[in-house]
User: Fold this.
Amino acid sequence: MSGSRYGDVLSQLAHVYEFNPPDSTMNSKLTVSLYLLLSASAFAQGTKADYERAANLERLTNNTEFRENVNPHWLANSDTFWYTNNLPDGKHEYVLVDAVKGTRQVVSDAPSGAVAQVPMAPNLRSPEDTSTSVTVKFVNKSGEPAQLFWIDTTGGRKSYATIANGDTYNQHTYEGHIWLVQGGDGRPLGIFEATSSPDPVIINPPTADTTPRPFGRRRRREGADEPRGPSNWSVYVRDNNIWARESGSNGEIQLSKDGTPDDPYQEPVHWSPDGKKFIAFQTEPEQQHTVYEVQSSPGDQVQPKLVQFQYLKPGDKVAHPHPRLFDLATGKETVITDTLFPNPFDISDYHWSPDSSTFNFTYNQRGHQIERIIAVDATTGTASTLVEEKSDTFVDYSSKSFIQWLDKTGELLWMSERSGLNKIYLIDARTGAIKANLAPDPWIIRDVEEVDVDKRQVLMRIMGGAGEDPYHIHLARVNLDGSGFTVLTPGDGTHRWRWSPDRKYILDTWSRVDLPTQSVLRNATDGSLVCELEKGDITKLLATGWKLPERFVAKGRDGKTDIYGVIYKPTNFDSNKKYPVIEDIYAGPQDFFTPKTWHRISDDQRMTELGFIVVKMDGMGTNWRSKAFHDVCFKNLKDAGLPDRIAWMKAAQATRPWMDLTRVGIFGTSAGAQSALSAMLWQGDFYKAAVADSGCYDNRMDKIWWNEQWMGWPIGPEYAENSGVTHASQLKGALFLIAGELDHNVDPASTMQVVNALINAGKDFDLLIFPGKDHGPSSSEYGHLRREDFFVRHLLGVEPRAS
Assistant:
């Protein structure tokens, strides 16, 4: 197979990801040969030429998009900036923008005196928008093992893989998500931000300038640090108990005596602002749940290795923290009544009132149907509920959590779906009464960008605007009393923004899957247009035969709810033909997954070149619509929105006769694999073939937080009712299971239990295990190829790559 699936452009990773654009002048013979591949017979499907065209699609379409990237260089002490425009034939131009005059002017050279530009935001965290799925290839040339961490939406680090020196690792991720690479001793080797068409990332040896920037937190509170205790005292844990020592004293005071190895006290303690009292947590530890895996083909020895790690699963015992209140002067404990927080999955967000009268924390009850802000009276130890969220299904703590205390005014900000839509409320921190809703309907709050306490204003990322795709993201400003709600980034698309150094202006860029990037300059006060900058030029891209993805909206299972999706067609599309349809599915309830921004090349587009129509949509049960839309997933993950997806495809086919719904395939990874298998077990009359990679097919086998959030606790009969293992005998059609033997995300035994059940049921299926690989090995080049081959055989009915 000629050409590279991902192209030949390499980029270097040092402190940040640096993009080195390829030579804009392509070899003329290569250009001609690629054009001929693209212009191959419209009636060829699954042939060697089709595979070659798919593999070379990215290379063919390189250097065909222009005016799509505005990177501002603001001049010092002025309202002026310049940027470079990329133009056809390797040319470029410099553009000077005067924000005061609202003018844009092409100039002969780059102005001098630009302010140094920061390539990434100082508080690194991945965005919650996961609409554009990408695969990043990491190549470790650092001379040592490299640890790969995802920086999550709160700024926390989650370990994903260890990449041996010299190895290549393919990581599934999403555009805009942040990845940290560390050496074996914890030294930072670099930070990478995923793009819609990422080039391979080379992990080089460390340099002197590889210190990562600080990471932000999603849950915020006023003030940089917690109160500190008196400087002449130290409080600490020893022998599982709380001890205190005064400076210059030879004696110690043992403040607690009930700590044991099975129920120890923990540091740090949380001091009241007056330094007289503190809260310590006595915590029963979580149980140990060891997962064992066998590395069949280690690189340093012939014999296999046993790999083991701790991994809590649904129903396991979680840590149980108990708050304890101590008075340093008397050395006595005031007992805190725990009636309102008897069974925590988690206790977090510790906060003392400024007058030291009350200690607050957030209680997330096991089962996730109750979340409370608890207020503890520091004199009596009496606990009361300040704010409460309650649901018969679930409180979406994992995606929709935000709290910020406004101590100067005795208020707090709190995220809630109590109205049926996700909102931010201003709440009286003394009484719990709601004072204001910060977003009018139909807007949904995606996240809080910034709280300006002095101006009493909030910047928010919002979704759900009327008259456009409800998943589009905008920036809005609102006053804390709910007045003055202003959308700062109008325009039908998903927006991203950058501020001028003085924050007087916003560089607003937006796009859709069918609209290349648009860039304008806006007034940061009211979002009014200052100057139009660029509109992405894809004339040359379309000339290659590349097809715009098509957005499509249809009603779901209820005949009322709009379902939003995308249709991809091959470059040699012929409306007189009949094309099998393949659905790319991920229905995890934590987010939505249909792309909403411009991207030139995706795996879905490549797959169309083999002779398919590829579709992607978000059915009921996925996130960021209404609470009712989301609740469909509760104790019902096997549903996966499949009835909505089928209704959507049938509606699309009604006006697109070239979609052949007698030949429908589906594929997915992780939770997407669970959905793909569910399609074959519960919707096998519609779906004919499925590829499922690294699936959590029985939710009792997967990670505790994700599965208890959606499937509930305690473990009920719904777990078995949703299990692909329990219902394996219902399989219809062709199934291809893929897994990595060293998957640390989803226990690979989940795949093997499906295999066992299928064998016992006498079912035919295909199985591919990747030795030594972690989660999602189908994202590798070999995995891609095998997935494509499977669909070519079972939906096109031909032998793959035949000439």
Q: What stands out?
A: The first strand starts at residue 11 and ends at 13.
